[in-house]
Amino acid sequence: MGAEPVSDGSTPVTVRSAVRPGSDGEHALQERMGTTERADRFYADQVLDRLNDRMQEFVGRQEMFFLATADRHGECDSTFRAGPPGFLQVVDDKTLVYPEYRGNGVLASLGNIEENPHLGILMVDFLRDRIGLHVNGRARIVPDADMRAAYPDLPTDPAPGRRAQLWVEVSVEEAYIHCAKHIPHLQEVPPQEHGRRAWGADDVKRKGGDFFGAAAEAKEREPHRRQAPPARAFRAAAEQVLADARKRRTPEPEHQPFTGWFV
């Protein structure tokens, strides 16, 4: 973990262990910013390659986490996952699994994992401990039946209509703290105040509607595309217009030959 200065008779060169956590980019920036020593202390004291007992207990009571993925080009996506306590399951100190439910059909995170298995998970406890836990690792997508065959004790979600379609299995590579600084302390709203959640609903309003006005803007930008009739109906109408024109058509004068349709 430490640095070993070596010299070839010129300026000393810093050599670091190949197993030092973090990316080459962060290591280079630490050198430029003069934070290498502090970073090494953090790596040595806080970064594990597994989930210890206290981390496993923390994971087991979380109801949400933030997920970061990237495709094979490095294009990133961040999103949010939620469920009852324990929906993010600790299989062992090196393995986590979580369910993927029916959503908007885009499948951005799963699509990224198909191309690039590296992901980052951030859990933040806003209610009790006001602390966070980072987990970085490699993931694979597993069908629900296969996952339950491998892990028969996986729970079934109690929410009506909420059933896992797929699972993501995460092999833990790094686990470390996110400090309490600046994490707000929130209070949980009683269930009767926020009402019953409609998992998997297609009701646009219950899912948030057009809260940010994106759909309205798209409609204003491309009204012709949204209001265009289906292709089959358009073809049928065009054929009818042509048929009517043939019935009414008279021979063209010889000095005005028909040259085609112009719009």
Which helices and strands appear, and what pairs or packs with what?
Elements: E1 4-6, E2 13-15, H1 24-33, H2 36-46, H3 53-60, E3 64-70, E4 76-82, E5 89-92, E6 95-100, H4 108-115, E7 118-125, E8 131-143, H5 144-150, E9 166-178, H6 191-194, H7 214-221, H8 223-227, H9 231-248
Antiparallel strand pairs: 1-2, 3-4, 3-7, 5-6, 6-9, 7-8, 8-9
Account of the 3D structure:
With about 260 residues, the chain is of the alpha+beta class. Helix content is about 30%, strand content about 25%. The chain is built from 9 helices and 9 strands. A hairpin with a 6-residue loop joins strand 1 and strand 2. It is elongated and about 90 Å long.
Overall 3D shape:
elongated
What is the strand content? 15-25%
- The CATH superfamily of one domain is known as Electron Transport, Fmn-binding Protein, Chain A
Helix- and strand-based class? alpha+beta
Give the topology string: H per helix, E per strand.
EEHHHEEEEHEEHEHHHH
Query: What kind of oligomer do you see?
Result: single chain
**The level-1 CATH class of one domain:** Mainly Beta
Question: What descriptive keywords fit this protein?
Answer:
263 residues, seven-stranded antiparallel sheet, Pnp Oxidase, Chain A, alpha+beta
